[in-house]
Amino acid sequence: MDKIIDIGKYIERFVNWLTDNAKPFFDLIKDGGNGFIEGVEFLLLFTPFYVIIALFAILAYFKTGKGMTIFTVLGLTLIYLLGFWQETMETLALIFVSTITALVLAIPLGIWAAKNKWAEKIIRPVLDLMQTMPAFVYLIPAVLFFSIGKLPGAFATIIFAMPPAVRLTTFGIQQVPQDIVEAGRAFGATNRQLLFKVELPLALKTILTGVNQTIMMALSMVVIAGMIAAGGLGEKVLEGINNLDIGLGFESGLAVVIIAIILDRITQAFGKQTQNK
Fold this sequence. Notes:
The protein is mostly helical.
């Protein structure tokens, strides 16, 4: 059946127009973004592996307990012994840069949506689109704008990982009891004081849940971004699939699982500690 409406044609024209007319802007982002990612990578790879393991173990001990500390030490040591240390540090660098950028964009958007009904009505369907669109689709404009490499991987990861942080920031602020907000107003608090001293502290547990979900989604997308030469464990997983190398696929997949569990438990612990306070 022939198409009656060809939305894809107009999207393609728009993306091509952006690629042709905003090249200096994308080049600037590419240079800055690559510099940031490579800087974090250099820091992680320059630091001896046992120091990185010790730092994660200390964080796990103080935030989660002995069991997770043992798992962290054993898991990261296993990754080193499997020969995936460099790829793991590349993956962590990409997750770090993508997550920080996603949160810098997402939390203000979440606050705006919580404060403005019209903003929420506009942002919500956009988030629905971002969350339900197949992850592979984000790789196409990323490659058109930035070619292949680490930055397009980070670009696609940021788009994919942002929605949970926006939604949970909005939800957290909207769930703050109105009587507490009214009490703040009664004592003369300005809107800025209410936001930073009442609403954000009370919504912090929910916001941290959004941070946790953003990190997990960034990790899953970073693996997919291996398809556009973003490096890291994603490329090893892809190499295993392309060569039908079950051993390589399993080992690199196991490294991803270990990193996911460590990051998930530690970030969850931050949220639980906030709740207890």
